């Protein structure tokens, strides 16, 4: 049988583009990531109770805290858990099996807990933007306050970016951001992104 | 005192507009007869050449187009809107009503640009407007001779014809008026080659205007640690400090400005944006600004935008927008050479240009003496200062010492001259007596100051009248804003600085920074002005036009006419005369107009009312508003994982919402590409007889998880789900509360507590919102999580009698009828990829929908194409899919039009009578049970060959009427490859009760008339045998 061919959403061509710059923005498509959504199952009028049950189980089984405040991100091993909604989280980490392994692992670990586990590894393309101008670049399509006083390094936010629903994760180092955009929009978003980035100069790295 | 170079020799040059094309560029560059020998903020080492109406002229770096034109002695720059009167430069700022020009050429052409704010660059190509055939000889000026016949309200009166004549007169006049009217012209080439950018910014304190007050406010707020944005419409910071030679803290004002700018530049959280106009103030302290990034360059630098729209969210706003000077209304006050006193000082001090050689200064404000001093210092003769005030203050002493005649208690009653501009003024004592003529080529009007309250007014409050200032000042704040400096009537420089510092510190404190104490104000030495006496208009001694609104050609007589005819409130005055309705929003006109109306009505000025200011403060280009959302990026585009394959295999694309979907795949036939009919018929025939595959990834996909999933399904679908077993799928029909169909799809039970459902492509988001709404708001007790998984899965429909044989070649599980019957669901690997296989059919053939993770969607698609080669497998597009679903009578978008019930669509029997569900009560309404409702039927042409189209009206007889009562309309039509003739679906009154009847499908728009036979909507395999087994 033919070997299975995996394809990421954008697969951009590497190279240096736009204005000449000593410190261009660096754009990368992050591939091979698992993205599994956890959602606490319970009455919508008693979210706290179902959330605490999931958080306790997660801590007990996986040895990591779930982020419980808006915009918080917690690290668990080589994965990160992003706060998505009062009762929803996205677990992101490397996975040689494109998400299946992580989903399976979480299902096993969380067996018996009232939590909906959904593999969304292919639902979003992940782009990493690094460089001093990343906030200016994003401000061209995003009305959130991206100033580090407000959008602190290490935090995440769900918003619209160039009319595309997007999840932003400011890298803890402060020098960049991971952008999660729906896979079907990814190439259109990429076209917007590089057009907006040309003014600063950018390099696409594999 | 040094006389300006060459002044005498070139006096009157403005009257001559002979083409200078023939002159060599070097000569033109060297020859700027009205350029002062020294001073100004222009760069004499960087001469620039430019063209005005084709004539090659020269200027200096730092010039505006207006200052460069004046330096060349060009005083006639445009014609007025209505009377085509010759007009010159009135102001030196964005309030300019007269000097409107078109800039650049071709696709970069921009009309209606104010020459006073257009920065000069090498090669600038400017043209005048409103003149035909030329600026110097304008046929439209004949309108001026007809002026008595075209007063205010002319259009309303003339073109609302008397009873019986209708709009006849308008129909006749329109073509002439259209040619003569309008501002500028649209570019004659497209598209605009430049990029326009947009950015969003959040700040603690936004300071609008970088004059003395604005700079001071930004300094105070910045020092307190606030995030500050300082925006100014000019290229240089300084505002009013740019026009006067002032001293601040013992230094020249420009040194103070430079020090302030450099301090602001060192603050990390302060952004300074010159060439940026804040043009709109909306709710919640949201403001818009446009930055002219490259308007001062021939074209933008590579990768840089032409303009940038800033969307600003500010905690606090400081409006330091300054004030504009008012003209004075006297006869023929619009002649070129008559300008604002502040403008004259700007041309002299900032641009080193003499706007004339011999000046008369007129006004009731001490600015007239500052102006006469500035002009005299530049070597310009000030023939006289005309002061309407009886007693002359100490400010006059300097002018008198300089040899100027001071005429107290006098007014200018008329400007005399020709198209080339003013040549003299007629001066009359207010007490009466014979007028006197004073020769001059420059008249400076010091009519007092109007604070720029536009943004403040946009933010909510109405401006209030300040009697001492004789001007409107900002009203009580409704949003988190404060005005500072001249914008709230603090005209004196020292007051501006102190006020700005206080406002900046207070704004920062309100935003949470600093203690609110203002830094110490710098010291400024100023003399005190004598009391200001506004002179709103000078009565005419007969002859001449007294202009109030220069851009719209509204005169004092027009205001009086409006008053006589009852258009007395400010809102009526504005609409009747067009006062203040130009692109300049009447910045120089409104207060004079109100004052004249108030005088006529014997009311105080605020008694007449105030107009409301609306965005934009100055005109904004569409490019800036559109930003990057043009062309292909008007909306984002959604592509499936197989998109590139579709394109590579000849598929034209169709938009479906934001998605792009393949319509058909063009092959070559007989040495030419297939037509779309050939391609889609070939694809449909292949699916009916063999196997085809279709990319259905765009269908909405939602997973429901939780113990109450079945209960939720029972409540949101009108049909029942209690008996849905794990591993089975069922059709689901979802209604709105009103009983009309919302959407349909398939619902599969993956596990006890796990459901996978599909929606139509168009309604994916609507259904998700519908479910979330009911889960979160209406039934919080249901323990269900709904997650959209549309993006996660690539879905491929494998359809046709041979579909199972094909799938068996790639699946690692049994896909036979026993383990995977119609409406069954299994998990298996397909081509090595974990897949969910649903046995469901949209085409009416045996069919499967294979869902695989999107990163392997293309892999599975290609594997299916390769494995089906010997079966002549084909991909099929939307057209073939639509053809097959019409043959089967499946309702889709055109039938699910928000007006149909399940019964209308022939699915009344699906509706459960055993449970409550969304829409059940709505369905009980009598109107939805009317047997005469339009219901789904099939139509076949009686001759079995005439084409049918969607949207045709169905009538009993084509020969009736009009009116001809409609029985319904066709919703979808196709050429049926199975039947060999066209068929259509239609919604027809009475529905299947008409089966066998002959009706007509007509299209009055296209003239089509087809006799049709009413049939059941399912044309192929009505028993559904092909689906099973």
Structure explained in plain terms:
With 206 residues, chain A is an alpha+beta fold. Chain A has 2 domains: 22-31 and 123-205, Probable tRNA modification gtpase trme, domain 1 (Gyrase A, domain 2, 2-Layer Sandwich); 34-119, Alpha-Beta Plaits, CATH 3.30.70. Chain A has 4 helices and 12 strands. Chain A has helices spanning 47-62, 100-109, 134-138, 186-197, and strands at 15-17, 25-30, 33-40, 73-76, 79-85, 88-94, 115-119, 124-130, 156-161, 164-170, 176-182, 202-205. Chain A has a 7-stranded mixed sheet with strand order 1-12-2-8-11-10-9. The longest helix of chain A has 16 residues, at 47-62. The mean pLDDT of chain A is 95. Chain B is of the alpha+beta class. Chain B is built from 27 helices and 51 strands. In chain B, strands 8, 9, 12, 13, 14, 15 and 28 form a 7-stranded mixed sheet that branches. The N and C termini of chain B lie far apart (109 Å). Chains A and B meet through strand 3, strand 7 and helix 4 of A and strand 8 and helix 24 of B.
Number of helices of chain B: 27
| Count, helices of chain A | 4
Low-pLDDT segments of chain A: none
Whole-number radius of gyration of chain B?
A: 38 Å
